[in-house]
Each structure stands twice: as C-alpha cells, then as structure tokens.
C-alpha cells in the first residue's frame, strides 16, 4: 500500500520505531538514522544474541544508516536524504532538530511536499515541553494509570508500556493523514504529537461520565461491576474473561452452561448473591475446559493468556499473526498483509554505504568518513 513512500526516521527507543515499523509493514521504505554508537535500544536491558529486545521488537523491515548529526558533513547528508523523502519522523526534545538545522521550517523549502512529524511527550508548547518523560509519566498524567488499581486503591505499576505503543500508532496515523492530504492538495505539512495528549484523548468516556455522574471509573458496566462482564478464576487458578455485554451472549452462556435459570440475572451486580454462584461455576472447571467452552459457545469468552502461550494459541496460529523472522518472534501489526514481516531488524549501519551512494551518486571513501566520525 505504501510502496514508493520513503520515510527518514530519526527516532530511538520505542514509540518512534514502532510507528515507522507499522509504516514499513504497509510497504514504506524506512531509512533509520542512527548515531555511530547506534540506537540506545540496541544495548538496552535484556538482549537476544547481543542486541536489545526493545530494538529487535520494533525495527523489522527497515534500513539502518549511521550518521553523526553533530558534524556538518553528517547534517548535509541528512538534508540530502530529507530532500528525497516523503516523510520524516523525529523524537528528540523540542528544539533539538532546529539547532541541527533539520527542523521542518529549515527543510520544507527544499522539499515542499514533505510530511514531517515530531513525536514528543508533552508537545512543543507549555512549560513542560522540554522535560524528560517516559511511558509511566504519560499514563499518570492522562488519568489512565488511576484506572488500574488494586483492592486497596493503589495504582498498579503496568508491566506494559501502553502509552509508548499508542503514541507510536498516533504518529503513524498522522503521517498517513499528511500523505493523504498531500495527495489532495500537493502540499507537505508539519505535525507534533504529544503522547500525553493521545492518552488523555482515550479518557473520553471517563471525562463525560465524571461530568454527568461524578464517578471516576468510567462506564460502570465496563468496570467489572456486573456478572456478565467480569474476570473469573478457574479450578487451576487461571483466569477467564467473560464479556457477554449484550443479553444474547449472556443467554448463550447460560444455556451452554446448563444454567437457564440465570438468564434473568442479566446485568446483575457482582455484589448480588448470584455472583457467588457464577464464581463457583468457573472454579469448578479447569482453564483448558473453559478454553474449549469458549471456542464452541458464542458468548464473548476468552482465556487470559500468558505471553508464552500466544504463539501456540489457536487464534494466532490460524491467522499466522505471530511469526518467526530469523529466530526473532514478531507480532504483525497487520495480520492480513502477507509478507509484512519478511526481513529482520537491520544490523547497525547495515545499509550506510548503499544509501550514501544512492543519495550522493558517487563513490566515497567510507573508511575516511568513519575516521572523521561522520558515519
């Protein structure tokens, strides 16, 4: 879908790389610009065969070029790349690209059709714009983290960086919108994504519910307060999600469970006596038995899977949405796109020579460029 679209990616770590990987899976050519030392994610935390898993998980189907943007020569090469690009993504703090002479205003004149996206934590205005920030900050400020509490009301520390990923989705969406707009009016555009704003926009139900009823946990029936939309423990201490929100699905569940007498308790509260009966039913069968039940009865029931169970679970096997690329497991962004994850993450600077020759159109002494610290 995006074949022929070239994106120059100046981002590191997770949100930006995830955004461009989504574009890559749609066919775009992604040129990942890394400092000579590489994207810090390459050496971050846990590693697989010497490369950080955060890098491996978010950089499939890309080309890697090392380039020292602190040098004049490096910035000149970057400008030549941008001049031929359809889009740019960067995730530095506001003002950094301007200091380098690579901000939108500086490069738009040489490429009027360029779609340029800055992915930030707090945007490019306001007193917090220059502050450092990470996923937990966006979750906290947006009100999202306050929705994940234990029985004592204490926010639970997530083991998933949801805001980083959702911010990446928002960035790829905005780049696509910019490309569509360019197709209509022929003009490029600048976009600045604040991940905090993206996360806050997902609190729409909660904001209006708070305004209307003074509650802080959003739509009540979605918060675990009714028996037909809740999480249940099984006999072997695993968990099942029952989301029979519509009455027809609750009826299907009751009939299949041989509990027709429960049909009248649709939307009953988890504080009612019937809830204890439903709990006992779930605790009477094994996790595997409820999986079999969920695969034969149309009642919006699914097992709560652990990460090491995904690849072998029937849903993912049927859709071939989790694939092995050079011994690296990868979950496709678009499972309906064949070949979407056909190449593994690139080695650091793997495509530097090829890209420089393409851009500059002449032979260069790469050894000298490396000696001078340009690549």
UniProtKB/TrEMBL annotation:
UniProt xrefs under InterPro entries: CoA-transferase_III, CoA-Trfase_fam_III, CoA-Trfase_III_dom3_sf, CoA-Trfase_III_dom_1_sf
Gene3D superfamilies: Crotonobetainyl-coa:carnitine coa-transferase, domain 1 (3.40.50.10540), formyl-coa transferase, domain 3 (3.30.1540.10)
Domain of life according to the entry: Bacteria
Entry-linked Pfam families: CoA_transf_3
Protein name from the UniProt record: Crotonobetainyl-CoA:carnitine CoA-transferase CaiB-like acyl-CoA transferase
Organism this protein belongs to: Cytobacillus purgationiresistens
Lineage: Bacteria, Bacillati, Bacillota, Bacilli, Bacillales
